[in-house]
Fold each of these.
Amino acid sequence: MKKVKIFALFVAVLTSALMFVFLNSLNDNDKVEKTEVFVATQTIPVETPITQSMFTLTQLPDEAILDGVITDSSLIIGKVANCEIVAGEQIIQSKLLTVGDVNSATLGYTLEPGMRAVTIAVDGVSGIGYMIEPGNHVDIIAQYNHDETAFTKLIVQNVVVLAIDSDLSNDENTTDKDESYSTITLQGTPEQVMEIRFYEYTGRLSAILRSPLDEEIIDLPIKQFETSDET
């Protein structure tokens, strides 16, 4: 009987010690530094626009926070997932794209909804001395001949340059980058794209650089002159 009492006492002491350790561990957990971040509430497929219901705010220990995690919901809503985001996963900047951003990784996401991309050939003269950059706004002038008369017409105004050759961004800091280019890709409405393609087929196109502060659309008459006075 005495041995039983001693064993019971030993078990009680051990249980108390374990409980003490457990409670201390809870207190230590309460002291862990945490940060509020956004995580996905559902799996978000690639190329899916993100809505408010797809993510929620939660607290995670600082050591578990990923680089580039987003803590502002306005930086998530309306963005597009460029790869699958699994439910419970922290939402990080590198997995999101902004539609219509000239610095997007692909041309498709650079385009604004409802707009189209069209590429035209340029040289040192029609391409403003190779000084156009992605993000610039330009007008397009068409020069063409018809029935021995030369015409100059402003066909498209204030369209954004999406790419120079295959470069979607002007952030490349390469010293050996070729300063010349042979094409520029523009964003326009379907009607503007049709105008550009029509006059590209019938004549020659030139880009006219606009000020970034100038959004005025002007109405200019077609310029023309006779070319049949050769002797």
Note: The two ends are 136 Å apart (CA to CA).
Amino acid sequence: MHATLNDLPAESRTNLCALLNARLADTIDLTSMAKQAHWNVKGPQFIGLHKMFDELWDDLNDWVDLIAERIVQLGGTANGTVRDAAEASNLEEYPHGAVTCKDHVAAVAQRLSVVGRTIRAAIGSSEDLGDADTADLFTEVSRGLDKWLWFVEAHQQAES
């Protein structure tokens, strides 16, 4: 840990940084998967999904930055390389055979759900460690992930 005048106890900051780095890995991994879907989706809903996955990627990048910067604010080191994310992510590998709109929507929705669940759990963990600010950050990300899950799942819930 780096020296900081942040008044949270050092042990709490260490545990918070580990929690934040775990969620950072998942979010970076999901970011790359959103771009994978953006590049490779095919079918009658192509243009809408192509644009939607790109907008999701934009929001995910913003959340990656929030999470990484919070780690550094607490005196930690953000482990944000692609290799770090690949090693630490809890997400299943993206299906490289996905081509159709339906395939990509299902793959992205499933992974949004997993990241949403782990981010939501991190809210309580942050509170338990006495850090309302990190809990608030995770709450912001959770709300955004829920919105994106709604957007993506809407493509599964209606007749084309």
Note: Helices lie at 10-40, 46-73, 82-88, 101-128, 132-157.
